[in-house]
Amino acid sequence: MAEASPLITLSEAPIVADTPRFADAEGAECQFLGVVRGEEDGRPITGIDYSAYRPMADNELEKLCARAAQEFGPHRVEIRHRLGFVAACEPSILLRVKTKHSAASFDLCRWYLKEIKSTVPIWKKPVFHDA
Length: 131
Hints:
Layout: E1 7-11, E2 28-35, E3 39-40, E4 43-52, H1 54-72, E5 76-82, E6 84-87, E7 91-99, H2 102-119, E8 122-128
Parallel strand pairs: 1-5
Antiparallel strand pairs: 2-7, 3-4, 4-6, 4-8, 5-7
């Protein structure tokens, strides 16, 4: 399977999940769509305000994708993360991982989500109803 460049988008634009396209050697895609919940710490929220230090966030995402390619072998990944205010019930992150087999796709999708949350400088600030 040919390695494709990762598709990484940090944007204030809404996330719209479209129909996936597969390469000849790809047999699986795992997609994770993370949606803003209507509460944080037991309190109702209107949404979350996401911010990032863009130069560092972009660099960390690129390093993360390069590390995954080296450690896990050929796959394609798409990462879309919203910035700015994201209302409750709207998607804030979309991950798509395409691989030859399903198990690898599931494992890599989980790995990417964990790494993004722990290493990429994207911060969230809940906007509470009573604020």
